[in-house]
Amino acid sequence: MKLIRIFLIILLVVISGLGIIISYDPPGVPILAYHKVESDNDLYSVSPTEFSRQMEFLVKSGYQSVSLAQLVDSFEGKYNLPAKPIVITFDDGYLDNYRNALPILQKYGMRATVFIITGQVGQTEYLNWDDIVRMQQQGTEIGSHTVHHTELGKAGLAAQVEEIQQSKNMLEQRLKVPVHFLAYPYGSFTGNSEYLLRGAGYRGACTGLPGLNDQAGNYYHLRRINIPRPRFGLWEFRLRLLRAKIYYVFTR
């Protein structure tokens, strides 16, 4: 009986602690990392129905989406974030980002950042330049995902420079606006990556590192919450947000 009481006490403490964390909104800002919004069996595809449920949950929970530019501006004291900011990003530049994701985002008053592999533009399943321009005109922030989806952490210095600079140049030439953010393909980067990105005129970059983001963090190592195809519906999405909170609270 004594062991049972001890177990129940420990369980109560754990549940209470989780309850505090769930209700607590830490100052860190979550960045969600999506790839596709499509009804297929790809690991990185979230169905339109599931994506709509996720956006609805965020809105009902009080979240308001912001761009990466607004996030970094806030860290530099140039912009006031809403009470519960969140950044929504998409990697690779799939066509369904325009056809499926954008209408859902607009339905819930949300916006996103899409990272483009410039060498894939216009290929099967990918956005073409007209799509990208239309998305930008409708409030989508556009960033780079390199030219060839190169794993920068394994690339030589010259290859890194080429992938980082050429993708930025091509996007800016087409969009007629500065491109300030990059997402590292495979989340891979080196000790030189920040230096190279700064030199190319980028203000920050997204990684695959877990957690939330605040002013004290490195803007070239922005942390994201990966959102793959859910196996357990909205509960899995909520648990991923919770895990990022816990990671942030215990590692900051």
Structure description:
With 252 residues, the chain is an alpha/beta fold. It has a single domain (28-251), classed as TIM Barrel (Alpha-Beta Barrel), CATH 3.20.20. The protein is 44% helix and 13% strand. The protein contains 8 helices and 10 strands. Strands 1, 4, 5, 6, 7 and 10 form a 6-stranded parallel sheet that branches. The protein has a two-stranded parallel sheet with strand order 2-3. It has a two-stranded parallel sheet with strand order 8-9. Strand 5 (85-92), helix 4 and strand 6 (113-116) form a beta-alpha-beta unit. Helix 2 (48-60) runs parallel beside helix 4 (96-107) and helix 6 (157-175) runs parallel beside helix 7 (193-200). The model is unreliable at 11-16 (pLDDT under 50).
How many helices in DSSP terms? Answer: 8
Spatial gap, N to C terminus: 39 Å
SSE run: HEEEHEHEHEHEHEHEEH
Outline the biggest β-sheet.
Answer: 6 strands, parallel
Q: How would you describe the shape?
A: globular
Name of the CATH superfamily: Glycoside hydrolase/deacetylase
Q: Supply the helix-strand structural class.
A: alpha/beta
The fraction of residues in strands falls at: 5-15%
Helix content: 40-55%
CATH topology: TIM Barrel
Q: How many distinct folded domains?
A: 1
Low-confidence runs (pLDDT<50, min 5 residues)? 11-16
Beta-strand segment tally: 10
Mean of pLDDT: 92
- The CATH architecture is Alpha-Beta Barrel
Tell me the radius of gyration: 19 Å
CATH class division: Alpha Beta
